[in-house]
Amino acid sequence: MDTPSSHPDSGAPAQLRPQPREDAGLLLVGKMIKTLVALSIIGAVGYDAISIISTQYFVRDQAQSAARLGHDTLRDQGSVAAAYASVVSYARSQGDTVVPNSFRTGPGNSVTVQLRRSAHTLAAHVIPPTKAYVTATATGTASDPLP
Question: What keyword terms does UniProt attach to this protein (predicted)?
């Protein structure tokens, strides 16, 4: 015999059994959205950090390579214009720019050059505290070895 207060499969009255919440699905969707937003922010920060760090590292290496190329051209051809042209060509091929008025030559066929590159970021280029780190500048110098 069923009574209004009990279920045939349960010995407990109906008012004592846990009832499913009507908003349980909304709570689950809300938590999933919050998790997705948090993971997206973490991913964007991670991407920007890796991009900035790798750009800072690579522009230093590129500046040294550009200076070495300029030095070799100056030593082999004896022309400052040819050395400058080789540095500019190399910088462009690597995605860098030569900082204006940064190319200098000196004794011992020394060449000093400064290169600049901007990191590709998702958000760091618009956030004031991180804007300064998005553009990397590095100086490279190469000269004849000491006798």
Answer: Membrane, Transmembrane, Transmembrane helix
